[in-house]
Every structure is written in C-alpha cells, then in structure tokens.
Amino acid sequence: MRDVVRNDGSVIGLYHRVDHEGFKGSVKFIGTLPDTTGSWYGVEWDDPSRGKHDGSYKGKQYFHTSSSTGGSFIRPKKVDGGYSCFLAINDRYGKTNEAHAGVIIEDLFVVDGHKKQTKVEMVGAEKVNKKQSKLDQLQEVVLRGMSVYGVGPHGSELRQNTPNIEELDISATLVSSWLCVSQITECLPKLKSLNVSDNVLPIIPGADKDMPCFRTVEILYINRMHYTWKQILQTCKMFPVLKQLHCCFNSVEKLCLPSSLEQLTLLNLESNKVPSWDNVLQLASLSRLDTLILNDNKIENIYFPDVPPGDTTSCFPCLKSLSVNYNKISEWKSINELNKLQQLEEIRIVHNPIMDLATPETVRQMLVAKISTLKMCNRTEVFEDERKGAEIDYLKRFGPHWLKAGGHQEEDKDQTSAEFLQEHPRFKQFLKKYGAPETSEMEQKSKTLKDNLI
C-alpha cells in the first residue's frame, strides 16, 4: 500500500489529524477493508455525531473509539491533511491584493442579539497587509482554525522568514502531538506566548522533561484539551520559565501541589470541576502568583485555617487579583476570610448567591468594607471616598448588633463578644478609625439596611 501524502510531500500517518468538510478527527487506521478496493482511513471524529460506528467493519474491530458512533471509514482523497505552519503564515499574512488582505475573515462580521450576521467594512486592510506582509517583522501570528499540521518540510523557511514571532496561536488546528508543536517552536527563538487550545495532544512518555524548544515560552494556553490536573502538570514540566497558564474548560477536579510551577504569576482554571476551597489551598505555596481565576467551578466557601480572623495568612503571599465568578459562594464569612490575604487588590465575584443577599449597591459596600486592601471590585475601581463611605456605613449598619454583643462607646466599658468579632473582624478597626457612631445614627442605618435587603 502506498503512503498517502499531503501536497507538500509529507506523509499522513496514524494518529495524525485530518479535516473533512469542517469536521476534525484523528486517523486511527490506514489500510484495506474486505470486499473493497483501495485504501481507507479509519477516523475517530471529535464530534461523535459525525461518525457511524465504533471502528468495526463486518464484525471485526479495526480501531477503537471513545464513543460507539465516533468512527467511520473514509477514502484518503476526501480528507484534508493540512499544510505547514509557514505556508499558513504566508497565506494569512503574505502580501496580496485582495480587498480584505491580511484580515481574518471571521472578524469582518458582527452578530446582533438575534444572531444575525452583519458584514463590517474593513477600512485600510491593504495598508495593514502591506505592514504584515513583511514576515520578518511579524511579532503576533494567529492561525486559529487553519489546517496547520506542523512544521512540515518548511522548517528552514519558517526559521529564516519569521524570526521575530513572539506570540503564536495555533489553536483548533491539525497539530496532532506535542512533538509537532515543538518542531514549530524550535524555529521561533523569540516565542513568548503559545496557544494550542482546542487541539488533541496526547500526553506521551517523556513529555514531562524540560525541552529546549519551549525554554522561551512564558505564557501557555491549553484550553479545552480534556486534560486532568496531573496531565497539565506533566505538560508544564516542558516549559521551564512559564509565568502564565490558561487551562480553562478542562477536566480538572482534584488539585495537588504543583512542583513545576514555582515561577507562575497567573493561573486560569475557569470552567473546570474544582469542588472546594480545600483543593485551591493546594496551590497556596505558589509564592509569585498574583492572579488566580477560578470562575465557573463548584466552590461554596473560602477559608484560610492557618490564622484566626483579623490576622494575615501565609497562603498566596503575592495574590492581588482573585476571580470567582459563577461559583456557589453564599456567606459573608468567605469575604471576611479574603481580608486575611496580604495583598488582595481585586475581587470578581458576580453570579454567586452572596450577590443576592442585598441590593447590588449594598453588596458592593459590604465587599469594600470587609476587604481592607480592595482597589477593584467586579471590574470597577474603588476610590478612597467610596471606601470611607462604605466603612462608616458598615459601622452604622452593624452598630446595633455590636451594642447587643456587649459593645460600648466608652472603651473601658466595651465587652464585645468574640462571636461578634469573628463575624465582623474589621469592626474594631472602624471604631478606632472613625469613632463609635451615635445611637440615633445606628438606628437610622439599621432601618435602611432592612429596606435594602432582598
């Protein structure tokens, strides 16, 4: 049987990725079938509905699929095996006289609320193309969705013609392995950001070794790869200077201490299956981490058990920004716990039950008052005047509770209960900063709070 080759002469082999009418799949079988002539590919499609069976033909299993309908046999000439990275760059960014030269076609349309597409006129496309067509000056390259399979026979051309690429997006392409990715990056000595999301890249033995071709990469996107946390850690060992890791929409459940991520400053775990804050605390020793994104997981509460309320935790010593949108946080004590962090400046916490405990304005006031270092709340800056107002309102709002808990305007008569201070750990700071409010002010604010509660 003759090898099936691409237009550039490279061979399409087992486990290579192919495309047919916009549907991608992996070649699991190459050969002949009984009672037929010529060669067939056995392909497992990414979309199981595209297939017809589980890799069987007339009672014999030729390859295996994860779904009972994920496989089919197809003639080699009907699939697209892709083209090299350099040809893709030249096709997208090379000089051309077309009206939309150098512009990604998908970007020429906007979709309104009724999902109707409207074409956008791109002014100056020719000028953009003229600038981009100087391939040796390209710094950012986006090849998302193109049929790039690897470096192919054009490695020297890639190396010679695009030496200044710093950001490369080869997401949703036809690259089939980390070896294919490494052969591309080996030709890009200045590469800092790599996006391989939406690809099928199996973890193979030896993939946990420091690889010279990845030694310049500081930012890695591996979204929608079906990776577990263990597989993510294995992958990251190939990237010795990694600073930012985006691994959204994967299969992350149980987290463990990441020994290979000491230099990490940003970690994005959005839309995984992290079940609790206990798991998140496994990352607490990441001493350089300043941004942690945990949107759309299953977190119900936040806590730092190493210190009591009012003290500073040793966990996440450099964390400045925390995003926990679309979780299940419902109690104010979780917000109290966030005040234990040494440097927290930003919180994003929309679409949690806690946001429904009062009006949006009141919830924001509470967040600002409870977290002393907060400078940005749900993407809106916190100014000093707002902070002062929030803290004074907090004093007045919970003043009656403080009095009932043994509090007193005269310090020598104050016997505030430990239970109250645990629930309101910053209250004593507010008293020291602003003084105790008058009883009439506390009563008025208490009534206002009832009006604001939902």
From TrEMBL:
Give me the stretches of Basic and acidic residues compositional bias.
442-454
Which SUPFAM superfamilies does the protein's record reference? Cap-Gly domain, L domain-like
Respond yes or no to whether keyword Repeat is given for this record: yes
Region annotated Disordered sits at 433-454
PROSITE patterns linked to this entry? CAP_GLY_1, CAP_GLY_2
Q: For this UniProt record, give its keywords in alphabetical order, as a comma-separated list.
A: Leucine-rich repeat, Repeat
Q: Name one GO biological process term.
A: cytoskeleton organization
State the organism of origin: Mytilus galloprovincialis
The family database entries (Gene3D superfamilies) matched by this protein are listed as: CAP Gly-rich-like domain, Ribonuclease Inhibitor
Q: What name appears for this protein in its UniProt entry?
A: Tubulin-specific chaperone E
